[in-house]
Each structure stands twice: as C-alpha cells, then as structure tokens.
Amino acid sequence: MEKTPSFIALILASASCCIGASAASTQKSMQPEIVVAMGKAADWQLAAEIKPKQSPTDWINGAFYTGLMATAETSPSPRFREALIKIGETNQWKIGRRTYHADDHCVAQAYLELYLSDKNPKQHADWIKTTRERFDYILKNPKTADTLAFDKKRRGNGDRWSWCDSLFMAPPAWIRLWKATGDQRYLDFMLSEWQATSDFLYDKDDHLFFRDSTFFPPRLESNGKKIFWSRGNGWVLAGLARVMQYLPKDHPARPRFEKQFREMSAKIITCQQPDGFWRASLLDPEKYPNKESSGTGFFVYGLAWGINNGLLDAATYKPAVLKGWAALMSCQQADGKITGVQQVGSSPTAHADNNSEPYGVGAFLLAGSEVYKLVGNK
C-alpha cells in the first residue's frame, strides 16, 4: 500500500512521542538515585568532625545547612529535618559573632526555612529571635556610608557586601526574614545592598562577577583574560535563585534580578567543559585542570532552578544541567563523601582531587534537590 504524506507524518509523530515518553520515563527513574545520593552525602557530612577552625555557625557550615534543608524537603526520611533542628538547638539558634559580616548571616537561612516550613511557626519564635535582633541592630546602625573597595589591610571589609560570595550568604537570609515577619524593612535593605554590590562588582560586558575589587583589571589571568572565579560566580547564581524564590513576581525589583540571572546563565553555560565540570577559573580553565565540584554544584543548582521556575529555556540549559549533575555524581565516593571541592579561598587555585568541605556538600545537595524536580517534570 502506498503511504500518503499525511500517513508518514502521523507515523513519525507517533515515533517521536514514544521516544520523548521513553526519555522522560528514563529521566524520572533518576529520582530515586538522586535521593539516595543526597542522603549518603548528607549523612557523611553530618558524621564528619568539624575542623577546629570551623564554628558550627560560620558560613562553611551554614552553606551545608542550606543543602541539608533541601535534602529534608526532597527525601521522605524525617532524619534530615530532625538533624537540622538538633543543630539549631545546639547552636541555641545563634548566628555568627560578627555583627555586619555576611558570612555570619548565612546560617540564618536554615533557621528561617525551618520556621517558614513549620506547621506552627509561632511556637518556635526562638528559632529566628537572634537573627531578628541582629538584623534590627544593623537597620538602626547601617554601614551604608562605607566604601565597597576591598582592602585586606583595612578593617571593616565585611561591614558591607563587598565580595561576591556575600550575595549567597546574607541576602537570602534577609528576604526570608521579611517573609517570616512581614517587616518590609528587611526586604528593602536587601534590595538596596544587593544593587550596590552588583553595580560595583558585576561586569556588564562579560556578565560575570569579580570576586572583589582587588580582581579588577589590570589584574588578569596568565592567558590575558579577566579573573572570574568559578565558585564566586556560583555563589552569586545560587544567591539570585534563593532571593527570587521569595521575591514576588510583581515586585518592581523582580525584572532586574531576572535579567541578571539570565545574563549570567547564558555566559556560564559557555564556560562548562566537555566533561561537565566548570574549572576554578571560568575564562582560563587550562590553568586549573582539576575537576572542581563546588562551583559546579552551585551552577547546576542555579541553572536547574531557573528551568524549573520558567526563567531558562529547557532545550538550551537542560543538557548542561544533566551533564553537570553526572559530573557531580562522579565526585561521590561509596561512603557518600563529595570530593573535588576547592578549599576555602577567594580566587581560582589548584586543589587536591580528594578534598571535601561542608559548603561543597551543601552545593551538591542543593543541586540534587533541583535536578530531582527537573527530571520529574513532564
């Protein structure tokens, strides 16, 4: 029987639907594997000893707690939420000791997310009491007159958000406190300070953030390119996602956050390497050949969040996310340990392939939580 063009088109369309359905089914089958991987990573970090110089309320652990909260929301096991509540109780729900420093505000994100997700939050006002007292003090005694220029010899570098990492550490806490209390001042302060930092550190040509003012040209990489630190920009992309998670879609500031998020995302996927990782230096990957999982984790998280929330085109970005997630999975050892994490620092550097840090585990867990949602969508 001769096949008419319309009949052939129908067969091709049916085949395409079957292939698409098969691919969707295969991706959805990833979800149990993701939950297992996240659980193993979280359990490993919870069992690991805190290094002597690491406070349980510092940013190193605070970033892990954000991932632990994401695990609690993804896994059916109650043990992760219970572990986070126990951490808060042990910390007496305190945040870091430095009044203005963004790094010492990071831990508040977990406290606030526990509060916001609790069925009876008013019974747990103590969970956010210290954070609110600290932020109220900052509002009454702001440091807005100080310079954003970064000088390691000058005291007060951390009084304002003068380094790009700070955009992950503090703003998500401030906007969560606004959500928890309804006090507009917290949101207004966050928006004002984010804009000041962005105006100062965001390169409008390359659509990436300098880590701080000490990395402005003429300081360059050995290949002559600008120095854009992978994890530093990962902090920012993840910070944008965690701010927009609560920033109302009809808020006047929303368009500029979305614009910056899209600009950064478009640039970031061009920096991904064939093996799925982003190297420590985004524009000079050959100088630091180590597979780096912390920056990669934050990029996977941010890009997946963007797809899941309709800000990024899935056809364009999903392949990069899945390739990045596969790269992250290759960094997980049998006992759950996440390796390939660049050590604490402020610039691109080489690192030991077996190195792990709590914030790197946090990035892995955040990434897993959004990839879980991504592969479960039709």
UniProtKB/TrEMBL annotation:
<keyword id="KW-0732">Signal</keyword>
<dbReference type="GO" id="GO:0016787">
    <property type="term" value="F:hydrolase activity"/>
</dbReference>
<dbReference type="InterPro" id="IPR008928">
    <property type="entry name" value="6-hairpin_glycosidase_sf"/>
</dbReference>
<dbReference type="Pfam" id="PF07470">
    <property type="entry name" value="Glyco_hydro_88"/>
</dbReference>
<feature type="signal peptide">
    <location>
        <begin position="1"/>
        <end position="23"/>
    </location>
</feature>
<dbReference type="InterPro" id="IPR010905">
    <property type="entry name" value="Glyco_hydro_88"/>
</dbReference>
<dbReference type="InterPro" id="IPR012341">
    <property type="entry name" value="6hp_glycosidase-like_sf"/>
</dbReference>
<dbReference type="InterPro" id="IPR052043">
    <property type="entry name" value="PolySaccharide_Degr_Enz"/>
</dbReference>
<dbReference type="GO" id="GO:0005975">
    <property type="term" value="P:carbohydrate metabolic process"/>
</dbReference>
<keyword id="KW-0378">Hydrolase</keyword>
<protein>
    <recommendedName>
        <fullName>Glycosyl hydrolase family 88</fullName>
    </recommendedName>
</protein>
